[in-house]
Design brief:
Elements (H helix, E strand, L loop, with lengths): L1 H21 L4 H28 L10 H10 L8 H8 L1 H17 L5 H15 L10 H31 L4 H18 L6 H11 L9 H13 L1
Helix pairs in contact: 2-3, 2-5, 2-9, 3-6, 3-7, 5-6, 6-7, 7-8, 7-9
Length: 231
């Protein structure tokens, strides 16, 4: 009896979670609710990326920030009639920057290179939003497009931050600039390992926003019409 009661409570909890978090009254509201959950999950990943790097669990420059920014920005979707959520998704890049700012300053204090890294994240967000990808398209197509977009924006980020390193270095000569960019190559190759996160994020987004739409069956309607004609 005790196990039966526990199982029943777990079932009730599962139904409650499904009703409150996973489903809504209409297909459109369900779609919007699930995309909100995806946005929240990506925000958590951005914060987790910094802690994973600080703990030494990832290789240098392997991060989730740019992949998450690109996927959320490029696949910007409807989030319902909530004005707060519309603003949250519209300015997701700024919210991500706030997370990065808090974690960076908490773990390493303020560094002058942040004057180039933080604006670069914002630039990446706005460039990603210029894409118009859809989770409704084939996975292979959107995964390739999102991965190529992320690769280009990683290069943009690394060029800007390398230039920032040159400016802050103090030796403002053409030779030192070339030296900085040559030294940046290994870090950029490490950074490209972040592309491994893009296909799973796209797959997760497609899975979370997949909603069954009720469609009236034309076969039943045709059968009813024939039965009426016989009468």
């Amino acid at each position: 009896m005790m196990y039966h009661k526990i199982f029943e409570e777990l079932q009730n909890f599962r139904f409650w979670v499904a009703e409150k978090i996973w489903y809504a009254k209409t297909e459109g509201e369900t779609f919007a609710k699930r995309f909100k959950l995806f946005v929240v999950f990506c925000a958590v990943l951005i914060a987790a990326s910094k802690f994973l790097y600080a703990s030494g669990l990832t290789i240098p420059n392997m991060e989730l920030i740019i992949p998450a920014l690109v996927v959320v920005g490029a696949f910007g979707l409807h989030v319902g009639s909530s004005e707060r959520w519309n603003k949250a998704t519209k300015y997701f890049g700024l919210l991500a920057l706030l997370t990065v700012f808090v974690v960076d300053v908490s773990l390493w204090g303020f560094r002058r290179i942040y004057l180039f890294t933080w604006p670069s994240f914002i630039l990446i967000w706005f460039l990603a939003k210029r894409k118009d990808l859809s989770f409704m398209d084939d996975f292979s197509d959107v995964a390739v497009d999102a991965t190529l977009t992320t690769a280009i924006l990683i290069l943009v980020y690394d060029v800007i931050t390398a230039f920032g390193t040159w400016v802050l270095w103090g030796s403002l000569s053409v030779g030192s600039l070339l030296g900085v960019f040559m030294g940046q190559i290994p870090f950029t190759l490490y950074h490209m390992s972040s592309l491994l996160f893009v296909p799973p994020l796209v797959a997760l987004g497609k899975t979370m926003t997949k909603v069954r739409v009720r469609v009236a069956s034309p076969v039943k309607t045709a059968t009813r019409n024939r039965s009426r004609m016989r009468r």
